Amino acid sequence: MNLCDMCGKPIKAGTSLGGALVCRLCAVDLRDEMDQMQADGKSVDGLKIARQILRETYSDGTLMIKDFPNDLLVRVIDRAHEEGDCRRDFIVKYLYALLCETEKKGNNQKGKW
Ligand SMILES: [Zn+2]
Q: How far is the CA of 11 from the centre of ligand 1 (A)?
């Protein structure tokens, strides 16, 4: 399954735009950004724009997890956005909370969540 070059969410059938593969929601924003750059006489590289927006908006820092479940990834992205966090900060925040919660319950609760 492909991931949107702009928001990072899994997409079944994306839109190819200026070299970027994006979801329907991001395609609208990317098209606007590309049109504006073209109107300003700047060179337009859709993939470069999409990746730049991904980095600026959804920076994961140095946290890399391979084979992250797609349904969980979508929930993380949505909740992180709702809470105004990047994905990395969101995951770290909730991991701390989960560890603190299970540590308060004692060692017999480890691994039970
Ligand atoms: Zn997207």
A: 8
